Amino acid sequence: AAGVIQSPRHLIKEKRETATLKCYPIPRHDTVYWYQQGPGQDPQFLISFYEKMQSDKGSIPDRFSAQQFSDYHSELNMSSLELGDSALYFCASSRGGGEYNEQFFGPGTRLTVL
Amino acid sequence: AQKVTQAQTEISVVEKEDVTLDCVYETRDTTYYLFWYKQPPSGELVFLIRRNSFDEQNEISGRYSWNFQKSTSSFNFTITASQVVDSAVYFCALSGSTGANSKLTFGKGITLSVRP
Fold this sequence. Notes:
The structure holds two protein chains of two kinds.
Chain A: E1 5-7, E2 10-13, E3 19-24, E4 31-37, E5 44-50, E6 53-57, E7 64-68, E8 74-78, E9 87-94, E10 104-105, E11 109-113
Parallel strand pairs in A: 2-11
Antiparallel strand pairs in A: 1-3, 3-8, 4-5, 4-9, 5-6, 7-8, 9-10, 9-11
Chain B: E1 3-5, E2 10-14, E3 19-21, E4 24-26, E5 32-39, E6 46-52, E7 59-61, E8 64-69, E9 74-79, E10 88-96, E11 105-106, E12 110-115
Parallel strand pairs in B: 2-12
Antiparallel strand pairs in B: 1-4, 3-9, 5-6, 5-10, 7-8, 8-9, 10-11, 10-12
């Protein structure tokens, strides 16, 4: 069965650079969630989209922005990167705006900021 | 606001021992969902179980079992006859029932080490 695809899997950037993380949900899933997991921490919710509209927002820095496109894939754009942005970024997808409460996680993108 | 507490931070057992991972949650929702995820050293989040607030039946899946007690707001996870491959970080998580409240709130995680 198709799973959530995240690209790239690993990313190394310098401070103050920009990064774009991509998420391709499971086919026919219309909802995407983004989570950030710092070293030794639990995943923290950043933002979610349902039918290309933002549905919920967590503790996402103003330097970050995200959107969901017409094909339901999502991109997380991160600007002015800081050392503290080094983390594992997970994307999860579901259907029905989360109504079924089944979130399928991608493998994550490991971002390292030097 | 929703909250998940995993009071145990690290547990170390010898292979074949049974181990229970505790999870206590707080929510004002009457309908909610509880989850357990496993995160091995490779980093991916592996889904183990989802339980809704109306289903208090305990569940067993192989060596894994879950005990949901609404009266104490607990959703504990037991691994029977632990194996080295069970070594990982285990997260308990909670979500609401509606779309706008469907994000997952995770506990801090429990690092389980199973020694041969």
